[in-house]
Amino acid sequence: YIICAYFSTGYAQTGVSVSPPRVYFESDPGNSNTQKVTVTNVSTKNSLDFAVSLGDWEYDQKGENVMYPANTLPTSCTSWVTIKKEDNYFTLAPGERRDIDITITVPNKLTDKSPVSTAVLYVSQMNPVDDVDSKGAHIKVSIRSGIKLFHKLPSAKNKKLEIENLVYNQPKNTLDLFFENQGDVWTDGKVYTDLVNTQNGKKTTLESVVFYTMPGNKREMNISLPTTLEKGKYTASIMLDYGDNNLEMGELNFTYE
């Protein structure tokens, strides 16, 4: 059968919704913080069995999720997470939902100096159900949904992104942006790109791109140029907007041939 793993609020064909996909915690050493996630069986005919487990995750250089077993990464907080015994394994009838309490208790003494820790909570369907793929073939489907857990100490407040390089990649027809999260907390935002043809003044605004980073992350973002862009000399202006009036700007002159 097919296992579908995903980070989202729902997957229509299998009839399961998990929300929210990202849960944020903040507490000092020795203190606990509890948040809820809601698991819903939105299918009309199948009762589904679920098991809850934990793991680690991080972003790679392109911002993609990389998954690891629990307690693998130095920034892992999986050992701090507790869930009620009755929420570790449960069954939902069609249309039924269940709130799961996730509690993070920070140890009194922290060995890791990082003020930010992460984990992932998996909600795995244990009874594969019959489904039909896009070609009409009968398949068995089982899903695993991941909810990202973020914890920070109250002292972690410094958001700082630094653009390290911006280059025109002619073979791939992209602008390659390199930047780093030099702050002490996760930082999310959007990249805005404007292209100005310096020969005729024509401005082209590209679609904004969402990004997510953790402290220390070095990121490479490849921004595709439109195939309809006319040839000429250009100034590219890049702006990283990461909230609270935090902006980081970069500029590049290049020739599009």
Task: Give a verbal description of the structure.
- The structure is a single chain.
- The chain is mostly beta strands.
- The chain is built from no helices and 20 strands.
- Strands 1, 3, 5, 6, 8, 10, 11 and 12 form an 8-stranded mixed β-sheet that branches. Strands 15, 16, 17, 19 and 20 form a 5-stranded antiparallel β-sheet that branches.
- The chain is flat, with a radius of gyration of 22 Å.
- Mean pLDDT is 89; it is low at 1-5 and 7-12.
What features would you highlight for this structure?
257 residues; mainly beta
Counted beta strands: 20
**Shape, per Cα inertia axes:** flat
- Helix count? 0
Q: Mean pLDDT, nearest integer?
A: 89
Q: Supply Rg.
A: 22 Å
The main sheet comes to: 8 strands, mixed
* Binned strand content: over 45%
The end-to-end distance, rounded to whole angstroms, is: 49 Å
Low-confidence stretches: 1-5, 7-12
Order of helices and strands: EEEEEEEEEEEEEEEEEEEE
The residue fraction in helices comes out at under 10%
Based on secondary structure, the structural category is: mainly beta
Write the layout of secondary structure elements.
Elements: E1 2-6, E2 16-19, E3 22-26, E4 32-41, E5 48-59, E6 65-69, E7 81-83, E8 89-92, E9 97-105, E10 116-125, E11 129-132, E12 138-152, E13 161-169, E14 174-181, E15 187-197, E16 203-205, E17 209-213, E18 218-224, E19 232-241, E20 247-256
Parallel strand pairs: 1-12, 3-12
Antiparallel strand pairs: 2-4, 4-9, 5-6, 5-8, 5-10, 7-9, 10-12, 11-12, 13-14, 14-18, 15-16, 15-17, 15-19, 19-20
